[in-house]
Design brief:
Layout: H1 14-28, H2 40-47, H3 51-63, E1 67-70, E2 74-77, E3 87-88, E4 95-96, E5 99-100, H4 112-124, H5 141-152, E6 163-166, H6 169-180, E7 186-189, H7 197-204, E8 207-210, E9 213-214, E10 217-218, H8 220-228, E11 234-237, H9 251-264, E12 267-271, H10 285-288, E13 293-298, E14 310-313, H11 320-328, H12 335-345, H13 349-371, E15 377-378, E16 385-389, H14 396-405, E17 408-409, E18 411-412, E19 425-429, H15 436-450, H16 454-461
Parallel strand pairs: 5-17, 7-8, 7-11, 11-12, 12-13
Antiparallel strand pairs: 1-2, 3-4, 6-14, 9-10, 13-14, 15-16, 16-19, 18-19
Helix pairs in contact: 1-3, 1-14, 2-3, 4-12, 5-12, 6-11, 8-9, 13-15, 14-16
Length: about 450
């Protein structure tokens, strides 16, 4: 049985907010299909509501296909998209393949020749057996040098001894926060951001302090207000092609945030994994405040998601605790993946791969804007996802559940909320579909769900 405690929106009836939270946490991976939810009486006590409210909430989740009840055993979570071979299409009554619009991953480009060449070179390298040993917690020297070179693309001159090499950007983030914080510390954070920040903060005992944002991104004055009131000494930002809104923070706002951080002694964690997909993004926060910024990059969004190689540029004089935490969390990357990435970065292959991914994403963006014309979408050039505003008749969690029954996996806006907001938006990722044709088919199916009504959808699902 899971010990789940939901975060509830304040602007909805409690039973609806609980059902919304079940849908959002399933989509974000905080809940897993097959887990048993807490008994109704236990959850009612925890949330301070009546048992009748929990009963209605579980019934509502059941209508959406998120729960199944077993007499004498309890309520078990289920994923409406659990069948990977096909699901019933609610519009045609036929079986159709599931289309992944959920994973923020780059589109695949043809890399067989490049991959085979890299593996052949590795196999002929006299030192290849070293790759079968445990690497140092911060990475081998040649991989730190690779990281320094990759970071230089962002305009950063970081010596190799200040580069930590990790098994992806998330490992960088967890080791960084583990080293820099203590339980009870406040973390200043965007009101909408990377969904995994919630479980990370919960694991580390951090209090999330959502900042204010508008259509141009984080409002610097909100950073100052929280810093002045002692709400936190660490700020986490995704300033370029922000996840999920696709907004890129302007240079004036970056300069203002850097100045505020300097004035109040804030530490900045800059998660810039989407930067190389953007067209001429502004200077990094790390360039503006190098002495107080931990800068995170990776190759997962710009070459191949499965390489799982991340880099973190450390401020001068830091590093020992970060490397120790990297070892504790198991964040050391696989040396074979590092060697493939190194050979690509130290030649022109990485640039060619990045160019192909950017071109494909631009083509997919154009396709998405065409298919979803007439609906409110945000998708800056280079972004690998669309931030889609739903018609007023749809709630995000209901829409995500209805989309799943039509063979579409996407993420409701509630999964990204770090406060109690319930944005009636969904994130639609453009990269995972194997081709533009399959993406078009998925988006056309998505449009049909958009233009239907919730009552029609759930009646069809019943």
């Amino acid at each position: 049985m899971t010990s789940w405690t939901p975060t509830l929106a304040s602007d909805r009836p409690r039973y609806i907010a609980i059902a919304d939270a079940i849908a959002a946490d399933l989509a974000a991976g905080r809940l897993k299909s097959g887990e048993r939810l807490p008994p109704q009486r236990d959850l009612a006590w925890k949330l301070g509501v009546t048992v009748g409210t929990i009963t209605r909430a579980y019934q509502e989740a059941g209508k959406r296909g998120l729960l199944s009840g077993e007499v004498g055993r309890g309520s078990f979570l289920r994923d409406p998209s659990a069948s990977l071979t096909g699901v019933k299409n609610i519009f045609r009554g036929t079986e159709t393949a599931m289309v992944d619009l959920q994973m923020a991953a780059p589109p695949r480009v043809h890399l067989q020749a490049e991959f085979e060449s890299a593996l052949d070179e590795i196999g002929r390298d006299p030192g290849f057996e070293d790759l079968l040993d445990y690497p140092p917690a911060g990475g081998f020297r040649q991989h730190q040098e690779m990281g320094s070179r990759w970071l230089a693309r962002a305009g950063l001159e970081v010596p190799p001894d200040r580069v930590v090499v990790s098994a992806g950007a998330q490992a960088c983030l967890v080791s960084c926060l583990s080293a820099l914080t203590s339980p009870g510390d406040g973390l200043l954070i965007e009101p909408l951001t990377y969904p995994t920040m919630r479980p990370i903060a919960r694991q580390l005992g951090l209090a999330l302090r959502p900042l204010e944002a508008d259509e141009e991104g984080i409002i610097p004055e909100s950073v100052e207000a929280l810093a002045k009131n002692g709400k936190g000494r660490l700020v986490y930002l995704v300033p370029t092609l922000h996840n999920p809104t696709t907004v890129t923070l302007s240079r004036p706002r970056r300069e203002a945030i850097a100045e505020i951080a300097d004035r109040y002694g804030l530490t900045i964690v800059e998660d810039d994994v989407f930067r190389y997909l953007a067209d001429r993004p502004p200077v990094t926060l790390c360039s503006l405040a190098p002495e107080r910024t931990y800068y995170i990059q990776s190759v997962s969004k710009t070459m191949a998601a499965g390489l799982r190689v991340g880099f973190m540029a450390l401020p001068p004089g830091s590093g020992v605790d970060i490397v120790r935490q990297q070892m504790i969390i198991g964040g050391r990357p696989v040396s074979l993946a590092l060697e493939v990435a190194r050979r690509w970065i130290e030649s022109d292959i990485a640039e060619r791969i990045l160019g192909a991914i950017r071109a494909e994403l631009l083509a997919r963006r154009k396709l998405a804007l065409e298919v979803l014309a007439g609906h409110s979408v945000q998708c800056a050039p280079g972004a690998m996802y669309v931030w889609l505003t739903l018609p007023a008749r749809w709630r995000a969690s209901e829409f995500a559940a209805a989309a799943q029954t039509s063979g579409l996996k996407l993420t409701p806006g509630t999964a990204f909320a770090m406060n109690h907001a319930s944005p009636d938006k969904v994130r639609v990722c453009l990269g995972p579909a194997p081709s533009q044709d399959s993406l078009r088919a998925g988006l056309e199916r998505l449009r049909k769900v958009l233009e239907a009504s919730p009552a029609e959808e759930f009646q069809t699902m019943a």
